[in-house]
Amino acid sequence: MSENSEWVLPPATGIGSMPGGDAREAAKTVVGSFDSGQGMAHLPELPQRGPGADMIGRTAGLLVDVYARVEPSGWRIGDRPGMDTRRARSWLGEDLDALEEFTQGHQGPLKVQAVGPWTLAAALELRNGEAALSDLGACRDLAASLAEGLRGHLAEVRRRVPGAEIVLQLDEPSLTAVLRGHVKTASGYRTHRAVDRQLVEGTLREVIGVHEERRVLVHSCAPDVPFALLRRAGAGGISFDASLLTERDDEVLGEAAENGTRLLAGVVPTLPPAPSPGGARAAVSGSGAGALSDPAGSVMGVRTLWRRLGLDPRLLSRAVVVTPACGLAGASPAYARQALAHCVRAARSLADNPE
Q1: pLDDT band with cut points at 50, 70 and 90 for residue 354
Q2: pTM for this structure?
């Protein structure tokens, strides 16, 4: 068994983003949803507030000696901190204030999120307008700046919530595109060449290594998550959209589970299904609650996968954490609350009836 085998995570959690722009309300919802050991609370992200609250801008605000500003094409690296950097840091401070308020006396796991080095390199532009991904030297500098920024961020969260066992989640939705050479250039007519897998793995390992307790997850809601690479890089858990799995993933998932890697299965929809013509009124008034009426059904695919892999069903609730398929920023506040509560109920169903 790996060094991750003793790492116990609560049975449910969220991904990170939440709807709206009220930091206190978001923190209250997330902490309340996962109270009393039912799940793992996390620092909410509120991208609807605008640039600087989005995942790229928020992480850019963490960088040390690297600054970014908003351009019409996206976030671009600049020479000095400006209004956009100050706004990103201000919003993060507001979110941390709210989290601190609602986690007084908290003991146990608490998750914070940041964009990982390769998705950041694919999204941040250099001064020439091309992605930092186009310059491996820039990628190296960016990863080093991110690592230093994360050290400070983790220390700040420890100071504010001293009883927390901090779990770091690195968001890498662009990782597969980076590995396959599918990230488009600024013109949109070509793509950046694929980055060597060993370089990708080594850079991830360095960033993962900034967390002294090594409690690090990597999240991607894109298809074809590179599970084996992430395990080798040191990820103790991998978060994914379960609806995108195929039988090609069976072997690497089985190896991951057997070696103690935590599998954060995104099985709860991030949005309610579109109402049928005959059910439009009920769907509007119920905010999509009907989509979340069957906790056991939500984890049926996880049980099926476990049987197909031939794994011990008694390990299922320990190895699998139930989450939404991705962030909840696009949902209504009512549906977001229901989705988090449903994660808890679905995880309980998995524990009560693993077979």
Answers
A1: confident
A2: 0.93
